[in-house]
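Friendly challenge for the regulars: who can give me the structure tokens for this chain first? No prize, just bragging rights.
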Amino acid sequence: YNDADFGCVPVDTVGPCGAESGEIALVSNSAVVCNGSAISVTANGFAEGGDIDHIFLLTDQNDIIVAISVNSGVFTGIPFGQYTVYSFSYDVTDFSGMPVIGQDFFANYLANGQACYDVSDGIPVSIVQGLNVAADISEDCIDDGEGVFMVTFSVSGGSNTTYTLTGDVNQTVSSGQEITLLIPELSNYAIDISDPTGCTESVFIVTGGCSKSSVELIEFDGRVAKEGNLLFWATATEENSKYFQIERSLDGTNFELVGTVEAANNSNTLREYSLMDANAPTGLSYYRLSEVDLDGKVTYADVISLERRGSTTISISPVPAKGDIQVSFVENLEGDVQVRMFDVAGKLIRQVATQVSAGQLNLDIKDLATGTYFLNVTTENQTYSSKFIKE
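First reply, four minutes later:
Bragging rights claimed.
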């Protein structure tokens, strides 16, 4: 007969056969099982008794028997991989004993056309690796004032889809997604992680006490000036301080160094410092102050933000225009820009990526119909707007 898993299988031609494998089904209703968990199946309507025996078999991708369950239908201790589980009913007098682990199920049993047996359709099952948790905790508090440690960790393995976190953290994360936690000093955090396959893992995080900064910072602020963004700060005391760093970010996450200022090393009097960011961009900038000790320890202060407003107007000539328009910027603008033209109804007529050189931009408008148009020019940090008339 034609078997769903093994193809054409020889049929018993000796006489009546009482073997019946029944209908096999997974107890858990899931064909994906976490490494270390059990595969559990059941069968209804199988034949057993007298010379007819019944077992459950687990085979690998090469049809090799890797496990046998005589009664329970439960398989444990199976390494991760791809398998197929069968219900197998057979006449013990037609075989030299019960099937053996390591044998080829098809070649040793199903290929015997004179034997009395019945095998169910196989159920594919997968054993997946357990959960892998990668965790990292900061060596010291990231903020002495708040007294918190920064912990980052990610989860992979198991179903490699999503994971549910419960306990001191409650959220759902994706495989490989990095999670950042701010955990108070002298705390114990317990996090239980599970996935749809039943894989579980527990994470325990214990934080110690914060090392106190050698610098007592009493102020960190800034203001927008004509020459750039001015940052200033003051300390009440300093011990073994080497230098200060000012970093800038446009998104509040990714910072780059603006400059450094030498510290006082040791001081018990008020010290005032400042640094001018002469290359401050137009728009919102985030600034972070850090102090580096003589031993290399870095201590961060709070992040502040400054918004530098540039001119948002542009001049367009000639008025009215026929073929080309010349766009002039108040600032000596350079670089890539996005240009958008709208009609008086607000409909986008044209959009193009181009470049501004020495604060000048030339645009061809020969194909536009006569009328009034609005022009937007967008840089990385600013949008400039004006209107022009096509004759």
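Confidence is low (pLDDT under 50) at residues 11-15. The chain has one helix and 33 strands. Your move, everyone else.
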